[in-house]
Every structure is written in structure tokens, then in C-alpha cells.
Design goal:
By secondary structure, the protein is an all-alpha fold. The longest helix is centred in the N-terminal third of the chain and has 42 residues. It starts with 22 loop residues before the first helix and ends with a helix.
């Protein structure tokens, strides 16, 4: 049996490549990216509202406190506004500001310059004062802080 048949060995197909990805993998990747971005956006939105709400509660407690110690009230207002600004913006942006830079930062979200030239100027050095200024109108300062907080909800 000496026939010349053109027989060849079994030829295996090429291995399946992982690239380009199938359509299902692209959709899964898109869903993951959208989920991560949506989760980050939701987290920022929730923490922003939480920071402003808690600060409003603190301001309400300060407002209803019947203390004649204006220095303590001034220090509490300063700390409250500082905490909120650190929660809303990056820590490196808001925490390092002092003096006129701090007041200018607070004025950014307000009409006019109530912190730089108005009653809000006492917040710049409030934690370091030994006594409250004589001309301090604490009710106007609390109202200004409440107005600033309302502007932060956006």
C-alpha cells in the first residue's frame, strides 16, 4: 500500500487573544468607571451637606447660649467656621490660611467684603485673643456666620 496521499499532521487553531476585548468587557469597564465616579460625587455631596448641617446646629447652640463671655463665643465661632471650611475644601487649601488671607477666603462666597472690612474681621485672630474687643457686635457676627453657611450649601 504505497499510495501517495497528501496527509498532514493535525493543525491546531491559534490561541484566542485577550485583546481586543469583547463588547461585554468594555461595558463592564464603563459601568465600573461610572460607578466609581458616581460614588465619589455622592460621597462629596453627602459630606458637604453633613458639614453644613452640623455647623448650623453648632451656630444655633452658640446663638441660644446666654453667656456674657464674648471672647468664648468669638472663639467658638472661629473654630466652627474653620472646621466647616476644612470639610468643604481641601485641608491644604483652607487649614493653612491665616490673617487677611483667611478673611479673603471667607469673602469669596459672599457679596462685598464682610469678613475683611466688616464685623467678620475679628475671626482672623480670635483663637489668640486674651479678651474680646470692646466694639464687637456678637449678634451681627453670628448672623454673618449663618449667612456664610447658607452660601456654602450650593
Amino acid at each position: 500500500m504505497n499510495q501517495a496521499l497528501p496527509l498532514r499532521d493535525i493543525q491546531l487553531p491559534d490561541a484566542v487573544s485577550w485583546w481586543p476585548l469583547a463588547m461585554g468587557w468594555w461595558l463592564l469597564l464603563l459601568v465600573m468607571v461610572v460607578s466609581i465616579l458616581g460614588g465619589y460625587w455622592l460621597y462629596k455631596k453627602i459630606t458637604r451637606k453633613t458639614a453644613v448641617k452640623s455647623a448650623q446646629k453648632i451656630l444655633l447652640a452658640i446663638k441660644h447660649t446666654t453667656s456674657d463671655d464674648h471672647l468664648d463665643t468669638l472663639k467658638q465661632l472661629s473654630a466652627c467656621i474653620r472646621r466647616v471650611s476644612i470639610s468643604l475644601d481641601s485641608r491644604s487649601q483652607a487649614a493653612s490660611l491665616i490673617g487677611e488671607e483667611w478673611l479673603s477666603y471667607l469673602d469669596q462666597s459672599m457679596d462685598g467684603m464682610p469678613f475683611t472690612k466688616g464685623v467678620g474681621r475679628y475671626l482672623s485672630d480670635a483663637p489668640y485673643r486674651r479678651e474680646a474687643p470692646e466694639e464687637l457686635d456678637i449678634e451681627a457676627l453670628i448672623d454673618l456666620c449663618e449667612l456664610w453657611l447658607k452660601g456654602q450649601k450650593k
